[in-house]
Amino acid sequence: MELRVEDPRLLQVVSLFGALGICPMDFYETEDRLSILLDEEYLPNLPEIRSTLIYVRRVVRKKTDVVFFSEDLKKFCEYLFYPAKIKRVEFRNSQKGKIVIVHVDFWQKGLALGAKSYKLYRARFFIRKYFPEVENVYVQA
Fold first, then answer.
1. Taking the mean position of all CA atoms in its chain, how far away is CA 48?
2. I want to staple 22 with a disulfide (CB 3.0 to 4.6 A). Which of 17, 44, 58, 120 is the partner?
3. What is the pLDDT of residue 52?
4. What distance, in Å, lies between the first and last C-alpha atoms of the chain?
5. Residue 1 binned pLDDT confidence (cut-offs 50, 70, 90)
6. What is the pLDDT at residue 14?
7. How far apart are CA 26 and CA 39, in angstroms?
8. With the CA atoms of 124, 11, 18 and 63 taken in that order, what torsion angle do they form, in degrees rounded to the nearest 10?
9. Which DSSP symbol is given to 105?
10. Same domain, yes or no: 64 and 77
11. Residue 63 belongs to domain with CATH number
12. Nearest Cα to 122, choosing from 66, 48, 61?
């Protein structure tokens, strides 16, 4: 899959990761945050990725984080809602498609959602894009 980047700031982000030999799969951007989606194979390179994020934060002038992609939807949900501890991931069928319900502990729900429910919106964006059979994503305590 090819990543198309029109924004010059995001092009700089791709070049910074390219210096490490890492190609981002996708981005999710809001007015104050940027999430970079990387393949799971780059998980062992996490220390180098974290040091690169310092430069990325300076370039885009936003809070920046990295999410790892997995073909397994349950594992992908764990990456998306980290550091919240996920009890289980439930799949329900609806008329339009599957609904993913991520169950977390009551005290972990705020951590799973993030500020302004950022992590939930990010999860919906990435899951709908890479798992088209999924209609919606919910977090339940």
1. 18
2. 17
3. 85
4. 35
5. low
6. 80
7. 10
8. -50
9. -
10. no
11. 3.30.300.20
12. 66
Q: Which residues contact 84 (CB under 8 A, 6 or more apart)?
A: 104, 108, 109, 111, 112
Nearest to 27 by CA among 132, 137, 81, 17: 17
CA atoms of 114 and 16, how far apart (whole Å): 27
Domain span at 109? 73-140
**Which residue reads 């289980």 in tokens?**
88
Q: Are residues 100 and 62 in the same domain?
A: no
Give, as one character, the DSSP assignment of residue 96: S
CB 111 within 8 A of CB 84: yes
pLDDT in tens, 91-118: 999 888 899 999 999 999 999 999 989 9
> Does 52 reside within a domain?
yes
pLDDT band with cut points at 50, 70 and 90 for residue 3: low
CB 42 within 8 A of CB 22: yes
